[in-house]
């Protein structure tokens, strides 16, 4: 469906939760990637320049990991700003999904992984309510990305 399933209240509380973690976008984005790479080492294979990095400390120091962590958080931030406008939201999600499906050929299950790690980090830092209020947003993002992948023939 092209319409968002979030109420105005849900949008507001999701934004509140996201703002707290987005304040430190680079550090938190980096932490999320490092967790993904450490807990799911196969995800590193998509990033040629991260392949040789095994320790979390090494990754934390890497400009490329930090830069991509910040980029991921920036993209989600754009989506969060447009949760109440499905056209604008899709305008961000669609090209991102297409690029990851066609050019980068990233397995779509990795979007769920990264979203789950973000939720985990939110819960650790800001409690269960933050996580709960952002869960619907991650579901929305993953659903739309999966739909784009289907359209691209995955």
TrEMBL record:
This protein's gene is called Cygb1
Specify the Globin domain's residue ranges.
5-150
Q: Which PANTHER family match?
A: CYTOGLOBIN, GLOBIN FAMILY PROFILE DOMAIN-CONTAINING PROTEIN
Name the family the entry cites: Belongs to the globin family.
The record's function comment reads: Involved in oxygen transport from the lung to the various peripheral tissues.
Tell me a Gene Ontology molecular-function term this record carries.
heme binding
Q: Which domain of life is it from?
A: Eukaryota
Annotated transmembrane regions: none
- Tagged with keyword Metal-binding: yes
InterPro entries linked to this entry: Globin, Globin-like_sf, Globin/Proto, Globin_lamprey/hagfish
Q: Where is the signal peptide?
A: none
* Matches recorded under Pfam families: Globin (PF00042)
Q: Which reaction does it catalyse?
A: Fe(II)-heme b-[protein] + nitric oxide + O2 = Fe(III)-heme b-[protein] + nitrate; 2 superoxide + 2 H(+) = H2O2 + O2; Fe(III)-heme b-[protein] + nitric oxide + H2O = Fe(II)-heme b-[protein] + nitrite + 2 H(+); H2O2 + AH2 = A + 2 H2O
Keywords assigned by UniProt, alphabetized: Heme, Iron, Metal-binding, Oxygen transport, Transport
Listed name of the protein: superoxide dismutase
This entry's Enzyme Commission designation comes to 1.15.1.1
